[in-house]
Specification:
Shape: globular
Structural class: alpha+beta
Strand content: 25-35%
Distance between the termini: 35 Å
Strand order of the largest sheet: 14-13-10-6-5-18-19-20
Number of helices: 8
């Protein structure tokens, strides 16, 4: 069911206030031709109501000749900012950037954040955003989880489906997502409520089993059958199973890039308002599927780039795969058990 502009403006005003937007601050809304215009217009109105000084920056779409679909999460990290120095300078000069184009995993996003600019990604359907408005309670969940994640040296994950995975932690920073760009240089995504970290290089080992009904992104499909991934020295070295395994491998092979098979961030979802079932209720091109990434108790692992964490892998192939029913521990302390969050 669609939502009214009035309700969405109120939600945007709420979120921008939580992002510490003050009168007189410079706000840039970044758009492309395929941006959701209800998001853009309601963000623009809310910015004005709070006294922000607004700049609209529209950039052309690119990568259409390279990507296998129109889904921006299917080909990441390459943006028109790479050759538009005027737009990049404008975004660096802003106090807050509202990104409706999706700069995620790009070098330009990191350049902008290093200037102290806050950045909020907003590309999910407005209905999803309204259902999962960022809140102090959600932020506190992520901060509480980080009390375990920040000092952790090892993550282990098991499941009744057969997952038996481990990796070392500490080389890369923690990714805390709670939907608010509320500190200088902070990036976040509305909606979000999750925590993750990139394994130390070469440390990821074991087996990850994608069970029937688990979710594969950016395909935005439920696995039709089991997929067994063998992880060695930080890379997926085998993808075994039936039709789903063949589909996944063919997609990753199409990039002709060994880094597509690298293990990327690993963590768990904390959003009680998210559900793994919503994937079947939205058009695939309408949503980035943050419900799948954030639903409470999932084990979310990814493959591909690590530039967001300061690494050097900038492959455009990025997969996020949330699993149900996993038990995840940090240094032997359980965080989830059979897909249920158990830490404080």
């Amino acid at each position: 069911m669609s939502i009214s502009n009035a309700d969405f403006v109120i939600a945007w005003k709420n979120v921008l206030e939580q992002c510490q937007l003050k009168p007189g601050e410079q706000v840039a809304i970044l758009t492309s031709d395929d941006s959701n215009m209800q998001i853009v217009e309601c963000a623009r109105i809310a910015t004005g109501l709070l006294g922000g000084v607004l700049t609209m920056i529209n950039l052309p779409a690119i990568n259409g000749d390279k990507a296998l679909s129109r889904d921006k999460s299917g080909y990441v990290g390459k943006t028109p900012l790479a050759f538009n120095t005027a737009a990049l300078a404008g975004l660096k000069a802003a106090d807050l950037v509202i990104d409706t184009m999706q700069l995620l995993f790009s070098h330009e996003q990191e350049e902008i954040l290093k200037t102290g600019t806050r950045m909020l990604l907003a590309v999910e359907p407005p209905e999803t955003m309204l259902r999962m408005i960022p809140s102090p309670e959600a932020k506190n969940k992520v901060i509480a989880a980080n009390k375990y994640m920040e000092p952790a040296k090892e993550m282990t994950v098991t499941s009744k489906a057969g997952t038996d995975f481990r990796c070392s932690l500490g080389q890369y920073p923690v990714l805390l997502q709670y939907g608010l760009a509320d500190e200088p240089g902070r990036w976040d995504h509305w909606p979000s409520c999750m925590i993750a970290r990139w394994p130390d290089e070469g440390s990821a080992e074991g087996v990850i089993v994608i069970d029937e009904g688990d979710i594969l992104l950016p395909f935005k499909r439920y696995a039709a059958d089991k997929v067994i991934l063998t992880i060695e020295k930080g890379f997926v070295t085998k993808i075994e199973g039936g039709w789903t395994a063949e589909y996944m491998k063919s997609f990753m092979d199409s990039f002709n890039d060994p880094d597509a098979y690298a293990m990327a961030h690993v963590g768990w979802g904390l959003e009680s308002r998210a559900s793994w079932t919503t994937l079947g209720l939205y058009d695939r091109e309408a949503a980035l599927s943050m419900d799948a990434r954030c639903f409470e108790g999932n084990f979310l692992f990814s493959t591909g780039p690590n530039t967001e964490a300061g690494g050097s892998r900038d492959t455009p192939c990025h997969m996020d795969i949330p699993l149900r029913g996993c038990s995840l521990s940090l240094d032997g302390v359980p965080m989830t058990k059979d897909g249920v969050v158990v830490h404080d």
